[in-house]
Amino acid sequence: MAIFRPLLRFSRDETLTAPHGFSTVFLRICQVHLSYMQMRPDEKLRQEIYSQMTPSQKWDEAFRLREIAWIIKAASIRTQHPEWSEKDIQAEVRKIFLYAFT
Question: What pTM was computed for the model?
Answer without folding.
Answer: 0.55
